[in-house]
Amino acid sequence: MNCSGWWVTFFVIFCVLQENGVNGNLPPPCDSQIYCTGDIIHQVQMAKIFDDDKHFVDMSLRDSPAKIIKRFQSLFLRPPARQLTREQLIGFVNTSFYDPGTEMEQWNPPDWNESPKFLSGIANAELRTWALNITSLWKSLGRKIKEDVKSNPDRYSQIYVPNPVIVPGGRFREFYYWDSYWVINGLLLSEMTQTARGMIENFLDIVQRYGMIPNGGRIYYLCRSQPPFLTLMMDSYLASEKNLTFLRENINLLAKEYDFWMNNRTVPVSVNGNNYTLNRYYVQIGGPRPESYSKDYELAENLTADAKPSLYSDIAAAAESGWDFSTRWFYGPTDTLLDTKTSSVIPVDLNAILCRVERTLAKFYTELDMPEMASRFSEALNQRLKAVQAVLWDPDLGVWLDYNSEHQKRNPNFYPSNLSPLWASCYEDTAVVDRVVSYLEKSGALSYNNGLPTSFKNSGQQWDFPNGWPPLQQMVIEGLENTQSAKAKDIAFRLAQKWVNVNYNAFKKYNAMFEKYDVEGDGKPGGGGEYEVQLGFGWSNGVILQLLDVYKSRLTSSAIITSFSFPVLLFPILILTLWA
Predict the structure, then answer these.
(1) What would be the CATH architecture of the domain defined by 383-580?
(2) pTM score, whole prediction
(3) Comma-separated ranges of CATH 1.50.10.10 domains in the chain
(4) What are the CA-CA distances from residue 279 to residues 222, 494, 544 (Å)?
């Protein structure tokens, strides 16, 4: 069986069958009796031996799984008590597992370029030097999976891929799906086309093996994906390297990944007597996420047996969205993670991404002279354009909003994702541009020194206020810049300058790039959520390099951004009125 073992393949098939309703019983997160389900993971994670649950499930085995399980079972003096002391568990882990990271080795990309051409276009000398420092970070983030992972897959939670990768950084030791889109864009600017292509080939290989791309490169991620950027990665690569042969050889795998989303992540919606199909995040699992086992278990501990699976599934679906976690997914009286209802939400950004994917696939098939398939995706695009406008467009606020299919109601709260159809060109009437710009001006989101907040709710979750995230900034900026509106372009530049400022100021202070930043203050990393802020950081590097390239002649290293003027106090009143 290819690379990851028969048991990983069995798990993927089991998940897909369950999602399609073939099996009425919820499967475990995966069938590994060490990494995903069973006594070992439960007792070790609940003993909280490590500060981060991900630490344990990233450890590799010193022996075969069967021998590790037998050793664990031999520790029980009085079965069926099934409970070891914390000291016994620590001893068991220390003698049975290697530390995380041993499955990979540091890798120095051979195509790293000390002076990529785009650097010479950056007018500001300080920013040009900084950009060079950022391109150097690719070397520190390069990893190659050891061959033993391929030879002995059952001793690792790592999914083997043949080509080296650029990892995000910190606790994220493996590749991640949507992170890699911005990493690849940064690599292409850095003229590291061999590394970029290798990462795309890895994803194509994974689609061939599993029919989908998991959240990240671990077996415990195989029941959930992340925002579907593979086709857009290919588009970025082909814009840099004109290679129709590479496209022709792999176009079927791009369509296969798209089909995963259309077969397993769709929901019908009826609006004004018309029926539409849109996409959502939807993950069916029966237990806690292995990498956050103790947190999920304790969160659901007081729920009824019937209620626990739904919460576990919605928590995993929020992780699939990439927004883990946010009040964006909360619907209920506590306004906490207990009210996570991700599967009820039709997200603006997911459908915008798929809109761009459909347009890109139609273009690809046209270039390959495959008119029947080009027609298929052109029709899919037309259907989605109509659905996005009918279901997600709010004519009162003048922007697209998430739609709750259970409540049959749009969520009027501000999120940068509300503007993602601009980035995807997922609209037909250009008049919406001025309305969206007006919405953004009135929202209050432009008043912050360091970029767009992820929401206006300070919930303690990392995908909420006061954090700003690189991919959201870039998508909004690109969306505004690509319109024909002078005002939209001006806002795009101002937002780009703000985001460059906060990243640059934090880099000068900490000599590091971070995964997220605080939109308030003078430049510091963000916080909140399940873990400490991570440095590295793949997508932050890629986004900054893109912004420095797009606005190379205009950005400065010490700009003072004046406030936008708009009636801030009036907008929340309108939102509350519409939501009531």
Answers:
(1) Alpha/alpha barrel (1.50)
(2) 0.92
(3) 383-580
(4) 19, 32, 30
